[in-house]
Each structure stands twice: as structure tokens, then as C-alpha cells.
Specification:
Elements (H helix, E strand, L loop, with lengths): L5 E8 L8 E8 L2 E6 L8 E4 L4 E4 L1 E3 L7 H4 L4 H4 L3 E6 L33 H11 L4 E7 H8 L9 H16 L4 E5 L3 H4 L3 H7 L3 H4 L2 E5 L7 H15 L3 E3 L13 H12 L4 E5 L5 E4 L11 E6 L10 H8 L3 H8 L2 E5 L4 H9 L3 E3 L13 H16 L5 H8 L1 H7 L15 E4 L20 E6 L2 E5 L2 E2 L22
Parallel strand pairs: 1-4, 1-5, 6-7, 7-8, 8-9, 9-10, 10-11, 11-12, 12-16
Antiparallel strand pairs: 1-2, 2-3, 5-17, 13-15, 14-15, 17-18, 18-19, 19-20
Helix pairs in contact: 4-5, 7-9, 9-10, 11-12, 14-15
The structure holds zinc ion (ZN) and copper (II) ion.
């Protein structure tokens, strides 16, 4: 061993595979885990006594919108402070690359950043920018369907022509050749809602040969959710690729209590094709302010508004009352704007969160001045509130949902497991104390109980906060998951 090496002693090691824990020492040499075992007889430059603490593979945030934030804020405090070592960007149909904008920043691409920050017309230029930024966390990327539409189409309120689909497909193929994980869609948004299933199916053709996947923010998450799920599954089976249903939920008061039938449909389809989903541990969603989701019975908090920045943090009901207009009219005047919708039932969310098909994804919005607390709190909240306190699942299962399961599904080779030879992406935490502190009223708060976070062997965060080192890399797609339903 050399001066760069670290030995973590006597930790409760959760290897990420879903197998039960073992007390062991773990040795890090360079960017790799080099030894695991009880009482390793090694001398390392740094030795850490971890008795009573849990050591897990670094958490993988499968659903993020950190595409541009990770370049502008490479220290990535909202994520590294949760024990996250890899973020998957490019979800919900929106990605920083390949994006040309053509003078237009359609909703919801504005969630990622301002027009001037989109500088990656080719996927490879984005990869270069990540390498140059040297972020604290690893970055793996999906390609957004809406970004491709915006690159190739004069307007987004129609279906793409055959020629446009071919042009988008060439961009997708180029991104796959440079390590993209797959394709994402955001069919619920107006910028992609006019795309018929056939457009996505034809665009998705190159995915299978590349061993890539399809992730979707479905056409709807409310009344017609079962139809939307069927559309997602049909797209996956036509392209012969695995499907990840993004932030699975039953949105809107009329749909509370439907998680049972939704999960039943998911399980039935999993019998014949590979399907998974992700979920964030909150009973509220957040995105741009959508007039179709304004419902006087639902509490809606405004997170930002371009014409009225002063209202950030207030509810739509308060704003409408002050302006003496309806909430719908107030929502119109606030556009473009962002919102938090308290439109999910806690019971449904818990049922989806604990389902064995479900991974953890924050869906955090790092550019919001008053973000949904999921940005800072998702992973500690799953470990503290939902695992330790509510006992929705064992700690072994909770960690598996954040590590081994997503690494296998997204093809992140050498990550998500504590094994000799794997990358030393590791999170050390106190399972008795780990907790989120970010709230809807006070959302920018690092969690408690995270003792050490290593990314490719570099200690990026500890109980004192950020170290001055960053070890993150661009992570290209690894080996194919194939189209086998079993084991996805
Ligand atoms: Zn989404
Ligand atoms: Cu999202």
C-alpha cells in the first residue's frame, strides 16, 4: 500500500447487492477497493476506525437534473452531503447535450439553467466539459427526447416528420457512441406531448444494439396513468430495451389510493420485459408551474417566477387572494414559473417506495432558489425516516435500492457494489443518526450522519463538510443489460 491508501476498519459493510451485512475492514488503493475482510493486516497512510458505522457503496441518484449545475458547481454539495457519489443526468426528456437551442429554451428545459449555459451541441463536448470541471461526483447521462426535438424541429406542438426523426436518431446514435446511458422522454410536458408513441419508438431504435435503456416521465401520472404505463412498456418492447419509469406516483387527489393497481400493472408487465422505476420519498412533486395541474384543493407553493420573483416561497392560494383573482389566473400571470405540488398521498408514496422494483431518485431541482427539499434530503430521508423509523424496508434493502440495483440497471460497470476491484465509491454513515434536515420551509440544509464520502478513492466529504478534493468522472455506459426481464 502507498501514501494514497485508506483503510476503513470494523465497519458494518453493506455490499450493495442486497446480501446481508458483514463486519469487515475495507482497503482503498488509488481509485479501487483492493481488499475486504476481517482485521486486514495492512498499513495504510490513513486508517479510519468505523466501528458501529455503516459502509455502503456510494449512493447513485438515478433521477437528477444536475446536467449544468454539476459544471457550474462542481463541489456538488447538495448531493455529496447525502452520500451520493454518482448522478444520472438527462432525465424527463431534457438534457444539456446534445442541445443547440436555436434561440429557444422551451419548458421544462429551463429547469436546467439559462440559455447561455447550454453550450454542448454534441454529446462529446458535454463529456469534455465534465472532465474539465472535475466534479465531486461521477456523472452519467441520458439523452433527452425534448432536447433532440428542440434541436431538429421548428415548433414542438406537432409530431416530428420522418426526416426529423432520422436526424434526431443520428444525434442519439452519436451520443450512444460517446457513452450515453440511453434515451429519456418527458411526454407529459407540452414540448413533447404532441409526439405520438410511434415517434419515440422510431427514435428508440438504436438503443438495443448499444445495450442502452429507455427512461420516461410518462405521458400522464394522473387519471390515465395505466394507459401511460402501457405506452411506456410498448415502447420498451418495440425497441427491445429495459424501461425505467421515472418518479412513479399517482398524481392528483382523484387518484389517491391507486398505487396498488399501478404497482400491479408494473409487476404484471415485469413478467415479460425488464422494467423498473424510481421514486422520491415525499408526498409532493415539483416542476415548472403547469396550468393543467392547478387545483384549488391542492396546496401549490411557488418556487420561482420570472415576472414576479418576489412571490417565491408563497402559495398560489395566497398570491391569488392578494391579487383578488382565481388561482388559475394567478398561475397564468406568474409564467414562466416553478412550483411544488402537494398532490401525492403519503400512503401511495410509501407503497411505491418500498416496492422491490423501486430505486431512489431525488428529482432535485438545483437551480430553484427555493427548491423542493428532495434536492438536499432524499437519501438520508430514505435511510432515516423510512428505513430506521418507519421500517418500510431493512437497511440492506434500502442501500440496495440506492446502489447495486441502479448500477446494474443503468449499466454502471464497477460501481454500486463493495467488491475487490470495484471503484472506491463509498459512503460511511451512522445508521442510528442519519437524517434529512431540509424541509419545505427551510429546504437548503445538509443532512446529518454522513461521516465520509469517497469518489474513485478520493475523500470528498466528511463530518466536517467538504474536503478540498474532488474525484468524480464522466461514467460511460457499461455492458448491456439485454432484454431479459429476470434480474433487472
Ligand atoms: Zn419528470
Ligand atoms: Cu425529473
Amino acid at each position: 500500500m502507498s501514501t494514497r491508501d485508506t483503510l476503513i476498519r470494523n465497519a458494518r459493510v453493506f455490499d450493495g447487492s442486497g446480501n446481508s451485512e458483514k463486519v469487515a475492514d475495507v482497503a482503498i488503493c488509488g481509485d479501487r477497493i483492493t481488499a475486504i475482510g476481517p482485521r486486514l493486516a495492512l498499513n495504510a497512510a490513513t486508517s479510519i476506525e468505523a466501528e458501529g458505522l455503516a459502509l455502503a457503496p456510494g449512493f447513485i441518484d438515478v433521477h437528477t437534473h444536475d446536467d449544468l449545475y454539476v459544471i457550474r458547481h462542481p463541489e456538488m454539495l447538495p448531493k455529496i452531503s447525502q452520500g451520493v457519489t454518482t448522478v444520472i443526468v438527462g432525465n424527463c426528456g431534457i438534457s444539456a447535450a446534445p442541445a443547440k437551442l436555436n434561440g429557444r429554451l422551451p419548458d421544462p428545459m429551463n429547469l436546467l439553467g439559462e440559455a447561455g449555459q447550454f453550450r454542448y451541441p454534441a454529446f462529446s463536448t458535454y463529456v469534455d466539459a465534465i472532465r474539465e470541471a472535475q466534479p465531486a461526483v461521477n456523472v452519467a447521462a441520458l439523452v433527452g427526447h425534448t432536447a433532440l426535438r428542440n434541436d431538429q424541429m421548428d415548433r414542438l406542438d406537432r409530431a416530428a416528420t420522418q426526416a426529423e426523426i432520422l436526424a434526431m436518431r443520428a444525434q442519439l446514435q452519436d451520443a450512444l457512441d460517446h457513452g450515453a446511458l440511453g434515451l429519456s422522454t418527458g411526454l407529459a410536458y407540452l414540448s413533447a406531448n404532441s409526439a405520438p408513441s410511434e415517434e419515440v419508438m422510431e427514435l428508440a431504435q438504436p438503443l438495443a444494439a448499444a445495450g442502452a435503456i429507455y427512461a420516461t416521465h410518462m405521458r400522464t401520472e394522473s387519471d390515465a396513468i395505466l394507459d401511460a404505463m402501457n405506452e411506456a412498456f410498448a415502447t420498451g418492447s418495440s425497441a427491445r430495451v429495459p424501461v425505467v419509469v421515472s418518479h412513479l406516483k399517482c398524481a392528483g387527489i382523484a387518484n389517491w389510493g391507486r398505487s396498488g393497481e399501478v404497482l400491479h400493472a408494473l409487476v404484471a408487465a415485469r413478467g415479460t420485459q425488464p422494467i423498473g422505476c424510481d421514486c422520491y420519498p415525499y408526498a409532493a412533486g415539483s416542476s415548472t408551474l403547469d396550468l393543467r395541474q392547478v387545483d384549488e384543493r391542492v396546496k401549490i407553493a411557488i418556487t420561482w417566477s420570472t415576472p414576479h420573483p418576489e412571490v417565491a416561497g408563497r402559495t398560489l392560494a395566497e398570491i391569488a387572494a392578494q391579487w383578488q383573482i382565481t388561482q388559475l389566473e394567478a398561475a397564468r400571470r406568474l409564467q414562466p414559473a416553478g412550483a411544488i405540488y402537494h398532490s401525492i398521498s403519503e400512503e401511495d408514496m410509501r407503497r411505491i417506495l418500498r416496492h422491490p422494483a423501486t430505486m431512489i431518485g431525488s428529482d432535485g431541482l438545483p437551480n430553484d432558489p427555493r427548491p423542493h427539499p428532495r434536492l438536499w434530503g432524499t437519501f438520508p430521508r430514505v435511510l432515516g425516516r423510512y428505513c430506521r423509523e418507519e421500517k418500510l424496508f431493512s437497511l440492506t434493502q434500502a442501500i440496495h435500492k440506492m446502489t447495486g440495483m441502479p448500477a446494474r440497471r443503468f449499466g454502471l460497470a464497477g460501481r454500486g457494489l463493495i467488491r475487490e476491484g470495484c471503484y472506491a465509491d463509498l459512503t460511511l454513515f451512522d445508521p442510528e443518526k442519519v437524517e434529512d434536515t431540509a424541509t419545505f420551509d427551510n429546504p437548503i440544509q445538509p443532512s446529518r450522519g454522513i461521516a465520509g464520502v469517497w469518489v474513485n478513492g478520493t475523500l470528498a466529504y466528511n463530518s466536517q463538510g467538504l474536503t478540498s478534493q474532488r474525484g468524480g468522472r464522466f461514467v460511460p455506459r457499461g455492458k448491456s443489460n439485454g432484454f431479459e426481464p429476470s434480474g433487472f
